[in-house]
Amino acid sequence: MAVYASFRSIGAYAPEKILSNSDLEKMVDTTDEWIVKRTGIKERRIADKHISTSDMGAMAARAAIERSGLSKEDIDLVVCATVTPDYFNMPSTACIISDKIGISNVQAFDISAACSGFVYGLSIAKAFVESGMKKNVLVIGAEKFSSIVDYTDRSTCILFGDGAGAAVISATTDKSEAFIDIHASADGSYADFLVTPAPGSVHPANQKMLDEKLNFVQMKGNETFKLAVKTLTKDVVDILEHNNIESSQIKYFIPHQANYRIIKAVGDALGMREDQVVLTVQKYGNTSAASIPMAINDIFESGRLKEGELMLLDTFGGGLTWASALIPFAGKVK
Ligand code: UT7
Fold first, then answer.
1. Helix, strand or coil for residue 94?
2. Displacement of CA 276 from its chain's centroid (Å)
3. Ligand 1, residues 115, 194, 225, 232: which to mutate, most atoms within 8 A of Cβ?
4. N or C: which end of the chain has fewer CB within 10 A?
5. What is the pLDDT of residue 334?
6. Does domain 4-175 have CATH number 2.60.120.260?
7. Crossing angle for the helix pair 93-101 and 53-68, nearest 10 degrees?
8. Among 41, 222, 226, 314, which residue has the most ligand 1 atoms within 8 Å of its CB, making it the best to mutate?
9. The domain 181-328 belongs to what CATH superfamily?
10. Nearest-angstrom CA–CA distance, 60 and 290
């Protein structure tokens, strides 16, 4: 009998501390009006000093496992998408999260696909589950983006926030619960559009790295913006056409929350109604790999997302990477 991947549960964690636009007005030369008009962001969450990416990932993962109705012993693969890992080289954040939530002796690894990381993680989970290699995969997107943001650079510090989201992806034989499709892609020729230059083998950690602030994220914002709108529009049109699905059949369009103007442009191109488009960018900013699972969690916790409803995910980020997915929510609602 064929085995499919199903999206069994969602969980998330957002730090309590809020960094508002008026706080940023006191830190850099910007205004609340500029930020809201250009990005839609009003505030973002920032993790305390003692909270690491794995702490946030572990909190999201615990919620996802509890809501899945499974026990942690049932999880047989842990994948963490992050570009702000606890440690740059090793151990992986997935290993640390596994330990924090009490999962041992299972495969665990990180993936690096920036903001596209969670949807990339879902494609990995789908492949493992549908090949029969794993039964219940924990996919986490977790970021302490504030750890790589230069809070004197107004072009980036207004955008990003911290947080985590997690999902349990389980094997099912019920085709109505199955992932419909995932497209994931990349183009490394645009690598310099979004980059944290150091530390790494190109620029190992040294005094020059600190003097030149190479450890902070750098972005060609406007170029990235234009490419994001063009690429995402094509990508979501392609996945819908490929699967013979009309945008009206989508219950929730859940895009990466980088910029309201990107979301609006892509949503309009698809003819999405306002009630179909999920927005959290105003309250969380851009949380990179955590953005999509935090948004799914938002509609789950507010009681909007019900079992069987069709989600269209789309994302774009450093690499450059992008991805889209058509997935019915297969979680039980309390
Ligand atoms: O998550 C991964 C994918 N990331 C994205 O998709 C992000 C894509 N990019 C964006 O969201 C937008 O490009 C930004 C929000 C980053 C910038 O908006 P923009 O409309 O592309 O503005 P811009 O970079 O073209 O800058 C316009 C002006 C510039 O001034 P001049 O040169 O016209 O005098 C900037 O210096 O706005 C200025 N500016 C600011 N002004 C006030 C840039 N940042 C700020 C700021 N406050 N925070």
1. helix
2. 19
3. 225
4. N
5. 56
6. no
7. 50
8. 222
9. Thiolase/Chalcone synthase (3.40.47.10)
10. 10
- Residue 295, judged by CB atoms within 10 A of its CB (0-12, 13-18, 19+), counts as buried
With a cut of 90, say whether residue 333 has pLDDT above it: no
- pLDDT at residue 1, rounded to an integer: 85
DSSP state of 28: S
Q: Which residues contact 265 (CB under 8 A, 6 or more apart)?
A: 229, 233
Cα torsion for 210, 214, 216, 219, to the nearest 10°? Answer: 160
Of the candidates 252, 11, 7, 295, the residue with the CA atom closest to the CA atom of residue 126: 7
Closest of 174, 198, 157 to residue 285, by C-alpha: 157
* Residue bearing tokens 């530390």: 199
Q: What pLDDT sits at residue 332? A: 75
